[in-house]
Structure formats: structure tokens, C-alpha cells
Amino acid sequence: MSILTYISGWPLLAALVLVLVPGNYRVIIRSVALLATFISMALAVDMFCNFQTGQNGFQFEQQIPWVQSLGISYHVGVDGLNVGLILMGAVVGFAATCCSWEIQKREKEFYILLLLMTGGILGAFASLDLFCFYFLHELALVPTFIMIGVWGRGERKNYATFQITLYLSVGALIALIGLIALYVQLGAHTFDLPALITYAKDPQHALAVQAQNFIFPLLLFGFGILVSLWPFHSWAPLGYGSAPSPTAMLHAGVLKKFGLYGLIRIALPLLPDAAKSWVPVIAWLAIGNILYVGWVAMRQRNLNLLIGNSSVAHMGFIFLGIASLNLIGLTGAVLIMVAHGFLAALSFGLSGYLYSNAGTLEMSELGGLCRKLPFIGTALLMAAMAGCGLPGFANFAGEATVFFGVWSRPALHLTTVLAVWGALVIGGVYMTRMVRQVLHGPLPERWNQLPDAANLWRRLPYLLLLAGLLVFGCWPKLLTDKIAHDMQPLIPVAGNTVSVVEHKFVAAPGDGRAPLAIAEFTLNTPD
Amino acid sequence: MNASLISLEISVLGLGLVLMLADVFMPAERRRFLGYAAIAALAGLLLLSFSGLGSCSLTGTAFHGMFVNDALSVFFKRFFLIAAILVLFIAVEFSGRFAGGVSEYYSLIVFALAGMLFAASANDFTMLFVSIELITITFYVLTSFQRQRLTSLEAGVKYLILGGLSSAFMVFGIALIWGTTGRLNFNELAAVAAQHAGQQLFLLGVLLVVVGLGFKIAAFPFQIWAPDVYQGAPTPTTAFLAVGSKAAGFALLLRVLFTAVPAVAFQWVNVLIVISAITILYGNLCAIPQRNLKRLLGYSSIAHAGYLLLGVAALAGPGRSTDGGAAILYYLAGYLFTVLAAFAVITLVVQDADNEEVSILAGLHQRSPLLAATLTIAMASLAGIPPLAGFFGKFLLLKAVIAQGGANSGYYCLTFTALAGVVISMYYYFGVIRAVYFSKEATDLSPITLSAPAKLCVWICLAGIFGLGLFPGPVLNLAAEAAKVLGN
Questions:
Q1: How far apart are CA A379 and CA A376, in angstroms?
Q2: To probe the interface with A, which of B381, B402, B425 has the most A CB atoms within 10 Å?
Q3: Taking CB atoms and an 8 Å limit, are B403 and A135 in contact across chains?
Q4: Residue ranges of the alpha helices (H) in B182-224?
Q5: Predicted ipTM?
Q6: Close Cβ partners of A50 (under 8 Å, ≥ 6 residues apart)
Q7: Given pLDDT bands bounded at 50, 70 and 90, which one contains residue A118?
Q8: Does any CB of chain A come closer than 8 Å to the CB of residue B387?
Q9: Pairing mode, if any, of strands B60-62 and A72-78?
Q10: DSSP assignments along A322-340, one per residue
Q11: Are the Cβ atoms of B422 and A184 closer than 8 angstroms?
């Protein structure tokens, strides 16, 4: 059995066990959930450490036939693309379980759904079979709707549930149609991704451009809706604002990356020609995310809506990285996916803490909280800084890398300029304004009794997520080496050549200055 | 003449007669036992069909080709046996609510089953008509069986009138086919269908037969009766109508379209696409405002007929692939367990026949966690959520349709219509789940005690839903094997 099976299997098994535990054994229910996600996280860390950087092909592979007549199998494996995502997903899963102490009613059902979400999405990221990939994601997605509908908060909870269910079901089904069309058109009679990629490499079997141009938009918009691609993003801020915070942490942090992962994992290698012709569209939609949603975020008065909007805006950078279709850009995109997972979970975790103690997230009512809540306040400050791309946090490394990647495509120069503007100025404005309104300034009297996260136990989830941001921020080479090695085969497929610059990038010594090193190379060798 | 081929049907008919006779000798308080005896007998026949003995292991034709035993008919026969067994479980739980004649109710179910078994093997328009009538006439009685209830009688009358109308259509169509071709046997007809495919009168005949079958499966525009009859009929009847009668309609539709007149079916591919699309949208859209549980399931059964027609449309496609047939069979198998689970829960929870509103489910998770979970899983499976049977069935249907899309872009439109239908359906299925777990209007919180057989029935349904969702291999192979009969 592959370690990956255990990583996603423990939470799923725990969900099954909890079904049998009576609902009033609250301590046992919580302990089982914590234990399962902790084991899953520990195994993910172990897997990440044992991952052999630079080795070709998938590692920790396991394949069990499932439905042989259709070529469906349970096939898991990791390469540089998903190794970081699985680690991030497992850490966020544990952190979200820790943060679930705020749930007071129907705890048993809540933990079962949370464990299904965690196990399902980790399995989806590990899957190398298109059917399982979709199947496990759907298994993780449906609990989200129920959790928002039942444990959600705010007056617009029902509308938010309705909206998020509608959007995400449509997105998932469009993606499913795209995946089935891909299977049918390739005609290889297997859902196994590595087998399909090998099959499509043969010029005889490669998909005709017309077929690619039909399937690619299905995948782009299907997955795009799941990732809140502008203009299909409006479910996200309200949905996250109404969700209980563990759900928002897991969904914004982990589940949302599924669509992006699908685009890089499936669409780029199998539909290379269509990907190339859709680049301008992706780039402009990404600008919609960065500028438009960033601008909307500036107008928010509610902390959760602000975080929700900024999280949508960040998706733009990842799409931009994908649009670059070169090694640097794609590597950066994956790096942001990991970084944003930690960041979104941290932000929603902290806002959830504030909400369950203060009962409001209207920024005009908050203020001066750093004095009463030194730990939570500092963590929120750090999250805000990471969100506007301060060096030292993983987001900076990713965003900078993406910008260099995109800049190397001359057609996207204008896009790059706009995106940098969005990242540095708009992001900076709303994040610092939020910090000023919530953390600094006079402390309203009613918040005098607000408790800080008292003990290590309460602080643990936030510390873990911060650690993730800082480790990959200060030492991005831990990830970029792994990612870049496995992104390399995608680049020739996408019709670009791996330039000298990028070879140097792969080999560049990483000591926290990786993006700067790329900058040097890029500037020295114009495209 | 090969009478051993119909030994299964003869046994079932014999069982029905025995049940009627036993009623005379059985004291009234032991009638419940009769239901269990019927279940045991049918379970024995089901086991026999898997054992390699009995008529299910034989293939061939009997009565001058009127009756055929092949992989397709065996698949449907097992399907109908399982459906009847589960419906009898539900009927036993329901039996207290009949004014009298409980054992007649059991035997009528068994007679309807015999009709379905004959329908599965029909290879001739005479056989088709006789089996359909056997099913329909027993259902007239089953529908109006609660004769002290006005709604049940109303449902019976509606079903009688519309069922009679559809039979008239069908028999007229058969006459036209006979008149133009001089043939009633499906295989003989297939040989000459192509040369008659341009003849208006022949096409009208086929159309009228398809209209008659359209009533049985409740496809648009012949769906009008479904919601009223589903709502008014006693719950076990509704359950059998939703599963057995619909599946029999599909068994016959597949035979007629793809064994008897394939040339016409391929010609009508666009009509099939349009009917499928409208049925899906109609069923799902009309289900949204429903408050009555059985009526809601009635509309949802129209929508599911639409999904099943996806497979028929795919079969008629230019690819000449039988994937669509396999998908229909698989979907029906999943639908069987899912719908019967839902109706079993409704029977056990809803005691007052005049209040079958969705709101009566409030607090069910406290009254009986098992029933609450079962209903939730059934609704999720109907909505097509993994890892349940409904998801895999829909996946197969969509795959079969998309595979035909390269040659006829109508299939892509159909795919997106189905997608829209699935999304709409989530709204009302989730509404039921919400009522079970999260409604605060519970008035009655008394625990529901379940008899051991009722529990067994619920667990069989759950096992079926999860089994077909997680381990699709074996049934899929059977379905693919059965669908090969439809290939040419």
C-alpha cells in the first residue's frame, strides 16, 4: 500500500468510524477526528521528506484495477506538481479540525463531513486516474454545501448555500463532461492519466485541434468556476463569508486548488494546441480576477468578505502563471497554489476566531485588537502581509516567479504590468487598511474582555499554517526544485522550448533568493 | 416448442394462485406470514436464476419465436424478481392500512411480476401486448386498493382511463404494423423493416406502439398521469409502478426499437434526443414546487425516465455502439435500490395517508437514525452524488451520449440539458434532506420501531446503492453482456 493511500484513507476511515459513535460522546468524536487528520498530516510530512527530487516519473505509486471494462483504476502517485499540494492539504486539514472547536451543535455530523472533505480532496490530489480524480473531488465538494447550509452564519446564509451549490455543481459537471469527452475522443479506453499522456504523445493518436478546441473550454470553464475564475467568482466571497470557518479554511485553501491542478495536470499535457490558443483569454480573465476583484475587495467593510475577495484575486496570479506556459510561470503558479492554501486557511481560521469571540466581523466595529489579542493580532498582521506579497512569505516567491514567467512572453507584457499593479498597489491598499481598522487605532470598550488564543493548543493551527508560509517563503527551493523538474516535460508539449534561462533556473541555487536569481537571468538574456 | 424456457414464469404464476388459495385457509391474523412466504419463494427463484439451473440458464426461443430467453431478458428477469421481493417487504409493512384483502394484494403483485417477466422475454407484438396488459390491469387494481380512500380511487380511475387509452394506441399501432408488413415477430420484422422504413402507415404504426410504451415509462408528452397516480396509490403500488412498470416499459422499448425496427430507430434519432431532453427538463422543473413526497418522487421519476432515454438516444446514434444499452440497464439497477429505499422509508414513517408532505419528515433523524440516513442516501443517489449508484449510472449514460457527439452535435445539446437537469434536481432532493435533518418544525418525536424484516429490506437497499456505486464491475459486465443483444 502506498503511503498516499494512508494519507487520504485515515480521514475517510475515521469518518466511517464516527458514523458508529453515538452523537453525545463529544470528546471521543473530536479526538478521533484530530487523531486521523494528525496521522494524515504526519504521513504527508514524511512523504514530502522522502520524495526524491529530480527523479523522473511518479513516486509512491499504487494501482488497483477498479472497473476493468472501462479502464478505471485506483491509481495514486506523486510528482513535483502534487507533492506540495498534498502536504499543504494535509496540514490545512489538521488545522481546520483543530479550529472546529467553534462548532457547538451537531458535532458528530460536522466532523464526519469535515473528514470526508479532507480525505476526499487529498485522494483527488493523489489520483492519477481521471475518474477517481473527479469522483474523490465530488465526494469532498458535496459536504461543503451541507456545512454552509447547516452550520453557516449570517443573514444571507441560505442564499449563499444556494449560490455556491449551483455554481460549483455546474462547474464540476461541465468539467466532468470535458473529462468524458477527453476519454471518448482519445479512444484509448482507459482513464489512467499517465497511460493517456503516453498514448496522446504518439502523433497518430494525438487529438485533432478541432477536438481540442472543443474540450479545452469545457475544462477551462468547468475547472474555472470551481476556482472562482472571473467572471464566475461571485459565489466565493459570500460563500466563504457564510461558511463555518473550518469549511472556509478547507475549501478556500485546498478544494479550490483542484481546478487549477486539473488544468495543469490534465489540460496542458493532453490539449497542448488548444491551451496555446486560449492563452490570451486566460490571461485577460486572470486580470479580471486581479484587478476587478481586488478593487471590489477594497470596498469591503466585513473582514470575511474582504478575505474572500482577496482570495479570489489571488487566483488570478495562478491563472496568469498557467497562461505563461513556460517553466518559470508554471512553477510559480504551483508555488502560489501551495502558498495560498496556507494563507487562505490562516486568514479564515483567524477571522473565525474573531467571529466566535466578538460575534461580528464588521471592520467599523472592531479596532485596536492587537492590544488585547497580541497573538491573534500578530498572526492576522502576518497573514495580511503575506497576502500583499511581502518577501519572506511563500506568496512573494510564487507571485514574483509568475511575473518573471509572464514577462518572458512579449504578448503578455501589458497583462504583466496590470497584474503587478494589482498585486502591489491594490493588494497593499486593502490589506493595510484592514490592518489599520481591525488591529490598530482605539480599542472600543466592548472588546476589553476579548480573550486571546490562550494556550499552545489553541495557537497550534495558526502556528502550523504560519510555519508553512514562512518555510516555503524563506526556502522556496524546497518546492521549486521539485515542481520545475516535473513541469519541464509540459513545456515542449505546449509548443515552447525550455530556454537557457529556464535551465539555469532549474539549476539555480536556492537560498531564498531564487526569484531574484531568475530576475537576473531574465534581464540578462532577453527572449 | 420449448416449455422449460418459461418455467420461471409458470412458477411465479403458480405462486400467485397459491397465495390466493392460501387466503381461504389462513386465519386473518396470520396473513402477514403469507407475505413473507411469497418473499421466500421469490428469493428462492432468484437464487435459482443465479445457480445455473432453471430457465434463466437456458437460452433460445419458444412458441414459434414469440418468447425469447437471452442475456437481456435474463438481466431484466432478475431485476424484476429483486424489485418484487423488495416491494413485498414494503407491502407487508403497509398491509395494516388496507381495509381487507391483504393476500389478494400480495398475489396481484406476484401477477404483475409475471407480466413483467413475460415482457422481458417478449419477442413478438402479440406477446408484447399480452404482457403489457397483464401488468397494466393488475396495476389498475393495485392502484385503487385502498378503497376507503377517495384519492386512491381517483388515482385508479385516472390510471384506468389513460392506461386504456395507451393500450388502444398500442393495439392500433400493432394492427398497422401487421397490415403493412404481415409480420409480428421482432426478428422477422427486423428483416423487412428497412424496406418499409419509408412507408407512412408503417411508421405511424411504430409511432403508436412507441406512444403506448411512452405512457408506461412516463416520458414527455405522455407523463400526465404519473404525479397523480403516484400520489394517490398505496405506497407499495407506487414503488412497484416506479420501478417495475417503468423498467418493463424500457425492456419493451429497447426490444421494439432495436430488435424489431432498428432502421426506424436510427431514422428517429433526433426525435429521441428531443423527447429525452424535454422529459428531463419537465420532470425536474415540475418537481421543484412539490410539497407532497410521493408527488415529488412522481415528477422525479419522469426526470429519471428522461435520463434513461439518454441511453436510448445514444443507442440510436450513428456509432451503433451498445454502450447506451448497458448504461440504461446499469442505471435501472441503481434506480431500483434507490427508489425502493425511498419508498420503504416513506411507508415506515408516514402513517397518515392524508399527510404525506415533505414537512412530516422533520425530526426523523431523532426518531430513527437508520431511516433518516437511508432517505438521505437515497436522495443523494438520485441526485447523482458519488460514491452512490446514481452517480455511476449517470456517468455511464453521459459517457454513452458524449461518445455519439462527434457525428451529431444534437448529442452535445442533450448532454448540457442533462447537466442542467442534474443541477436543478439537487435543489429538491436537498430539500428533502434538509427536512430530515435540519427542520425545526418537528411535531412528533416518538421513536419509530422497525420490524426485523423492515430493517432487512432497508439494509438490502443500502447495500445495493453502495455496492453499485463502489463496485460497479460485476453488474456492469452483466449489463454490457445483456446490451449486446441490442447490437446489430
A1: 5
A2: B402
A3: no
A4: 186-196, 200-217
A5: 0.86
A6: none
A7: very high
A8: yes
A9: unpaired
A10: HHH-SHHHHHHHHHHHHHH
A11: no
Task: Check if the beta carbon of residue B380 is closer than 8 Å to that of residue A116.
Answer: no
**Residue A129 within any structural domain of the chain:** no
Contacts by residues B44-49 (CB-CB < 8 Å, ≥ 24 positions apart):
B45/B8, B45/B11, B45/B12, B45/B81, B46/B78, B46/B81, B46/B82, B46/B85, B49/B8, B49/B74, B49/B77, B49/B78, B49/B81
Number of domains in chain A: 1
- In this complex, do A142 and B385 lie within 8 Å of one another by their Cβ atoms? yes
Measured distance CA(A484)–CA(B14) in Å, rounded? 73
Tens of pLDDT, residue by residue over A397-451, are 888 888 888 888 887 888 888 888 877 888 888 888 888 888 888 888 887 787 8
| CB atoms closer than 10 angstroms to residue A24 | 9
* Distance of alpha carbon A88 from alpha carbon A41, whole angstroms: 9
A16 touching chain B per CB within 8 A: no
pLDDT digits (tens, 9 = 90+) for B353-409: 677 888 888 888 888 888 998 999 999 999 988 889 999 999 999 999 998 887 788
CA distance A134 to A223: 11
| Residues A69, B477: C-beta atoms closer than 8 Å | yes
Of the candidates B69, B44, B41, which has an alpha carbon nearest to the alpha carbon of residue B56? B69
B457 min Cα distance to partner chain A (Å): 20
Cα separation values, A298 from A369, A429, B203, Å:
21, 7, 66
B176-227 pLDDT per residue, tens: 999 999 889 998 998 888 888 888 999 999 999 999 999 999 998 888 899 9
Strands (DSSP E) along A214-294, which ranges? Answer: none
Q: Which three cell numbers stand for residue B473?
A: 464491475
Helix (H, G, I), strand (E, B) or coil at A39: helix
For B:236-275, CB contacts with A below 8 A are none
Query: In chain B, what are the domain boundaries?
Result: 268-488
Which residue of A169, A183, A189 is the best one to mutate when testing the B interface, meaning the one whose CB has the most B CBs within 10 A?
Answer: A169
Query: Which of the 8 DSSP states describes residue A129?
Result: B
Those residues with Cβ within 8 angstroms of residue B100's Cβ, 6 or more apart along the chain or in another chain = none
Residue given cell 404504426 in the structure block: B205
Query: Which of the residue ranges A64-68, A492-496, B299-303 has the most confident prediction, judged by mean pLDDT?
Result: B299-303
Name the residue among A319, A262, A332 with its Cα closest to residue A287.
Answer: A319
CA atoms within 13 A on the CB side of B342: 30
- Say yes or no to pLDDT of A246 above 60: yes
Tell me which chain B residues have a C-beta less than 8 angstroms from the C-beta of A142.
380, 385
Contact A298, A426 (CB under 8 A): yes
Q: What is the pTM of this model?
A: 0.90
Residue A66 three-state SS? strand
pLDDT of A165-210, one tens digit each? 888 988 999 999 999 998 888 888 888 888 888 888 888 877 888 8
Distance from CA of A355 to the nearest CA of B (A): 23
Range of the domain at A369: 275-473
Give the phi and the psi of residue A74 in degrees, each rounded to 5. Answer: -85, 110
Tell me if chain B has a CB within 8 Å of the CB of A191. Answer: no
CB A250 within 8 A of CB A110: no
